């Protein structure tokens, strides 16, 4: 038997999407944490909206929940850092390094030191560990593939990656407002239904 709260949230989400209230739908997903919209998240990453991707992600997990979550957030921030370097914005890249990578030193003490070497290079692709880094679009696709695997294995996303099928009567009630067909726990007339109103 499904959870009525979850069913209602799925129906509301479906309604919001049908009414083209996409931002509201994504906010509901993030704030309730009941459904992770992988397609939306992938679009954010593939379009370079890294801050928005990380904000959406934080509705479901945070950096220190488990190693999968840590890796997901690290990959997003690393890609943002490399793209900033690729655009020649070294000052901005330094700020990113100082502000967004310090939290990862718990897992790798030399991370910031190693990344700061990239700031001194004309092209970070000359670093042996990044020699295979292609253009931005290819790099984003590869990063997203890694992130997708981490999300699928991450216990924080268990049961949140599949959109649930909803009971047809509940769907009819929400979508069409036909309260005469829906039982209401002892309220109304016989059998828990409102009496017919003519």
UniProtKB/TrEMBL annotation:
Can you give the residue ranges of the CTLH domain? 34-92
Name the keywords, alphabetized. Repeat, WD repeat
Matches recorded under InterPro entries: CTLH_C, LisH, Topless_fam, TPL_SMU1_LisH-like, TPR1-like_2nd
Offer one example of a GO biological process linked to this entry. Answer: regulation of DNA-templated transcription
Cite the Pfam families for this sequence: LisH_TPL (PF17814), TPR1-like_2nd (PF21889)
Descriptive protein name: CTLH domain-containing protein
Protein species of origin: Fagus sylvatica (Beechnut)
